[in-house]
Amino acid sequence: MELTPRLQDIINILKNKGNINVKDLALEIKVSPKTAKGYARELQRLGLVEMDQDGNLKLKEQKEEHVDKEKLLKTLENHESEIASLKKEIEEIKVELEKLKKKGKA
């Protein structure tokens, strides 16, 4: 997801300050409080910020996804064996196809 430059600016402000009130944000980015609140709501809708009932904004904590390496390796091994099996089947079908072509020409 690509953010507009204005929304990126707001994210950077929040990264630097930790949190900010919508009215203070409006002063900082030189827009009306209504416009600043609209930006805040858009970022909230995108799941990037949290806003309380008083208009205080903060970055939403991003959860790191846990990757089970063992499970991932097992899945990869399974797919690799399936691919090898399919390649073998394809080669067998090619051989059969060549035999049929030769019979058709004879």
TrEMBL record:
Q: Respond yes or no to whether keyword Coiled coil is given for this record.
A: yes
InterPro entries for the chain:
HTH_ArsR_DNA-bd_dom, UCP032840, WH-like_DNA-bd_sf, WH_DNA-bd_sf
Protein name, per record: Winged helix-turn-helix transcriptional regulator
Key word Metal-binding present: no
Q: Recite the UniProt keywords alphabetically.
A: Coiled coil
**Record Gene3D superfamilies:** Winged helix-like DNA-binding domain superfamily/Winged helix DNA-binding domain
Q: Which organism is it from?
A: Sulfolobus tengchongensis
GO MF terms held by the record: DNA-binding transcription factor activity
Which residue stretches, if any, does this entry annotate as coiled coil?
A: 59-103
List the SUPFAM superfamilies: Winged helix' DNA-binding domain
| Domain HTH arsR-type stretches | 1-82
Q: Which PROSITE patterns match?
A: HTH_ARSR_2
